[in-house]
Specification:
Largest sheet: none
Number of strands: 0
Radius of gyration: 27 Å
Structural class: mainly alpha
Oligomer: single chain
Order of helices and strands: HHHH
Shape: rod-shaped
């Protein structure tokens, strides 16, 4: 047949056994016929028994900040790779035109933009971690952004340490 009764409860551990017969419910503990499981339900559902049910917003709408953080972090990573590929060409062009003052213009501008994007992604990721949804996206954004910030700082310190020796 059919299922006569189902109880949904939050388990404290994966090892909690769910063996045994369901206990009968009294009339006041039965769910309203239009009731659905919703993580945003009120603390006391008895007071909202006759309230119309609303469809929960989709997870992507609720985790918009997490998505923004991840997209910003990925955009910063793509910009790093564009900088790595284009910087040698930009430097050769500046040297061939005898514009030695602008040799570092492109890498400084692009890495500055990367640093700003990574810091923005890090802040957005930390904000998203405080929200109920999108924690995995926010964690990924924080990891990518933090790695990008460290990478830019290592590049700047390394370049500043090595390049004066060749001048």
């Amino acid at each position: 047949g059919s299922v006569g009764h189902v109880e949904v409860f939050q388990m404290g551990s994966v090892r909690t056994p769910i063996i045994g017969r369901p206990r009968p419910l009294s009339g006041d503990r039965r769910a309203h016929h239009r009731y659905t499981v919703n993580c945003e339900e009120p603390a006391n559902p008895q007071t909202h028994r006759d309230a119309p049910l609303e469809a929960p917003s989709s997870p992507t709408q609720r985790s918009g900040v997490a998505w923004a953080a991840l997209v910003t972090a990925v955009l910063a990573t793509v910009l790093v790779w564009v900088s790595v590929v284009v910087t040698p060409w930009a430097m050769r062009r500046a040297v061939s035109a005898s514009e030695y003052g602008s040799v570092y213009t492109f890498p400084v501008v692009t890495l500055g933009m990367v640093l700003v994007l990574d810091i923005l992604a890090l802040v957005l990721g930390l904000v998203a971690m405080r929200r109920p949804t999108g924690k995995a996206l926010a964690g990924a954004a924080i990891g990518i952004a933090a790695t990008g910030i460290v990478g830019v700082l290592i590049y700047v310190v390394g370049t500043g340490t090595i390049m004066p020796r060749f001048a």
